[in-house]
Amino acid sequence: MTYTKSILNAARDVGVIQADLPEEIAPDHIRMRLATASICGTDMHYFRHFANAGFFLDYPVTLGHEACGYVENANGHDFPEGALVAINPVIQCGECDACLRGDINMCPTKRFPGSATTKPHIDGFFRDRFDFPARCCRVVKQGVRPEHLTFAEPLACAMHSVNRGGVTKGDKVLITGCGPMGLLATIGAAAKGAEVHVTDLKPEAIEAAKAVGASAGWVIGKDDMSGLANQYDVVIEASGSPHAYNQALDAVRKQGTVAILSLIQPSEVPVNLHVTALKEIKTIGSILFTHEFDDAVTLIESGTVDFDAIIGGRFPVSDTQAACDFMADGKAVGKVLIQPEG
Fold it and tell me: The pTM is what?
C-alpha cells in the first residue's frame, strides 16, 4: 500500500515522498492511518538543527511523536476496525526495574519515534499510515475529536511536570512561558484545582492561557512583574529560557518548588543558583510521563477542556515543511496540527 510520508532530509529541509508499507505487519503491531498529529518543540529542534539536546540524527527520518490514529488492521489484537486510538509513543521494555515500578520514562532501553535517541531511528507520525506496537495504543470513547486526542502525549508530559512539582488543590502556581507546553501545564495545574498565573512575551499567548485555566498573566517586558517575587508555591518553567528560570527562582516562595518542564538550552546567561540555597528551593526535573498518559486521555475524553483555543494551525502531511516554517517563524500560538491528505 502506497502512502504519503514527510521526511526530514537535513536542517530546515522536509521532503515528501510516496512510500510503501511492509507487506507483513510485525506480530505485536497494529496498522493505522493517521487521524491527527501535532508538532512538538523537540520536532522543531530537529527541524532547525538536525539534532536535539546533543543527540544528532544519523540519517533522514520522519518526525512526529504526538498523534492518534484509526485502526486499519488489528493484526489479531483486540481493536475494532476503524476505532480511534490514542498512541503512547514510549516503547518501553516492560521488564526492567524502572518499568516494573511504573517509571516507563526511565526505561534504559525505551524506543521513541522520530528521535535521535533511538538507534536505529524509528520514523515518526508525520505520514498517512504506519504500524505501531498494539500495547502502546488505547481505544477512546466515541465522540472524541482527533484534533483534541493528539494532545494526549504532550498533555501527559505537562501533567507529569505538574505532579513532579507536587501541585495540589489551592496551590498558587506560576507558569513561565505560554508556548504549547506551558499552555498544557496550565490545563494540568488548573485540573488539580490550583490558582494558575502565567508569563510570556506575547499578549496573545497570555490570552490563550486564560482560555484554558489561567486567572492572570503578565507580558514580559511590558507589564510590571515586581510583585511576583516570593508569591508562588510552585513555578513550572516551560519556556526553555535561562532568563525565565531566574524569574522562577525569584517568584517561588521560600521552601517552594520549581519544576523544569522545558529543556533549557545551553547559554551564556548566568543562572542565580545562590537563590536556591537562600530560599531552600526544591528544583525538580521532568521528562516524558508515567501514568499521566492515561490521565491525559481521560481528561480529553471528559470534554471539559477547550483545546480549540490552543490550536495554532492545521497543515496536511504534504505541507509539513510549511507547518515547521510556520512554527519556526514564531507565528503560531498553541499547537500546529499535521493532518492526513484529503
Answer: 0.95
